[in-house]
Structure prediction request, 749 residues.
Amino acid sequence: MEIVLISILNGVVYGMLLFMLASGLTLIFSMMGVLNFAHAGIYMLGAYFAFDITRVIGFWPALIIAPLICAAIGAAIEIYGLRRVHHNGHIAELLFTFGLFFIIERGTQMTWGMLPVPYRVPSALDFPLFTLYGIAFPAYRGFMLVVSIAMLTGIWLMLTRTRIGLIIQAALTHPNMVSSLGHNVPRVFTTVFAGGCFLAGLAGVIGGNYQTTEPSMAATLGPIVFVVVVFGGLGSLAGCFVASIIMGLIQTFSVVVDGSIADLLKYVGITVSNKNLFGEILTVPGSRIGPLLPYALMILMLMIRPRGLLGTRDT
Amino acid sequence: MSASNVTAAPSGGSRQGLLWAGILVLALLLPWAFYDYGASRHSGFVLTMCSQMGMMILFALSYNMLMGQAGMLSFGHATFFGLGGYCTIHFLNFAGKGDFPVPVEVMPLLAGLSSLGFGIVFGYAAAKQRATAFAMITMGIGELIAVAAIMFHNFFGGEGGINADRMIDQSLFGVSYASPVQVYYLIVAWTLIGAIGMLFLTKTPLGAMANACRDNYERAQFMGYDPRRVRFYQFALSAFFAGIGGGLYAITYEIVTFDAVSGQLSANAVLMAYIGGQASFIGPILGASLITLMQSVVSLWSNSWLIYVGVMFITIVAFAPQGLAGMIESHGPIAQAGKLNRLFVPYVRMAIPSLGVLVGFVGLVELTNFITIGAAQGKKLVFFGSEVPAYTIMPWAISAACLVVGGLWLKFEAANYLRVWDEITDDIKKGSQS
Prediction:
């Protein structure tokens, strides 16, 4: 029981972190048709900027400044990069961000080195928030939860209560109609792209010290974020939210599962040996299968329902 | 593409044959150009690089069967390369135990067939999807296999990979494959067979229908073809050729680790095919050779070759979406009209600021790289034989100045170049009308 509760809490924290990245990616994709491969790169940059700013000024200013720098980088990418390749089609835009990801990853290694940087949880938040069945729950995870929920409400209010939010919402479903109505679509694009990068940067600031800040963090998280976006349904923020939480829970719950398919088969009286080349598929314990599950789920989802969980249009 | 081939069929055909023969002769003679006659042995570096080039050419060509010819943007092509490699390692181990009487020369074919099997299974799931969904499902498959390669120890060997001995004493021609040069010629042979096979496929109805489904999916459907089936065949066959490359990889290195199925290798396929030029058959060959060359040669001097490749890729996406091969081919009509000499001066004028941009950019990258990584490793930053004082302001200022001045100057020269280019094409059009 205590394992279930702790896992749910950790899963939700991780899921909210995923959602912060995935929401920006979904917004950008829905509006511009670009699957931004550099998104996880921006997340990584957010973490590294936060590390540097924390060293000079402190963690709290970094919480604002680092995402703003990321937003500025995003706006620059949109204005000077994507607009230029826009006339070559969506594939060219996608490949542009794909190339950008390499440059960001390699550039990060060049600037900050190959090893993880010591980006730590601020001491003001470094205490156990409460103890559940003898297991301490760190206050920083609670803080992450607060920030991500605040961000979620922020997006929701902006999308439903402001004028720009209305235009963005309209552009999510009817991009052509919005431009026909005379809105400055390129500027909306830049805003959305910068906004998405702001969210990615924010996720980097609060996620960088929750996980490790290292040059490979983008490459490990990037595919998972794509899985979330595709699984939830491209263009659907609600689906994206549900998928983030599901993926977060899967990642934390699979760690505690100790059994394997072979154990199940034992109940029906079949024993599997681990000696041949392929028997391992059945005997590997659930805790090690964890990283594999998101991809398997995404492939299944795309095979059965290509538009994703709550998506409304085909990918 | 086909239209120009039809008009220039007699001379174009023989010229293309000549080009292929030239590439083959080059491939056969290349190791001997770097042969150390004093010590009477081959240069190991050149042999390794050329072997790597051969398999990467197969890999890039098979990738272009998807991206260039069928418009299927895959982000998991390394899956088939790597799985072919893993299967070959197991075949070699079986053969080493003596219960698998297959000669080494045939191993790549078996690797290809294994990958074909995987291609059929995964293609069933993936080929139905279009555009982004296809890109995502292939990425999912790629990541799935990459994760599985670390997780399952019996088949993939975990992080350490699995190894085998290629000297299994079974050969069609009595070759022992003890020396790398023997393996190199095996690679040349299989790369040639694979390339010819893929070239042949582009001339078949399947190749033509793959192009049709790329250009207009709905119209191909209206004509009574099932685009999903065409894409499925194309996917499975491209997995087959990638598997041959993987088999050669396994035979060359005698070890396959999860690097061979990693996302990095899948990404390399995209880079190679796109930089080389996805629209022409020869493009991926160019791209694969160039990137392998950069990977081996640039990495001798600097460990930031990936950033150069990335910048090259972005530049090509933004300014020359047809890739290197497309850039060369676009000079064809001008050369035919005998007006190539008019482009000479603009090219020379562009070369000078380009050199400035290059020096400035490389300088900045290497200086940054040196301060973070190189200095800690106790290396020295050496430029043309003299040590560069990386901690003073001068090298930074010079590099930045080269980059900025060169960039602005290049912008000016590029406008001039485009003007000359337009003038020439206008002249050619006028000439053909009158």
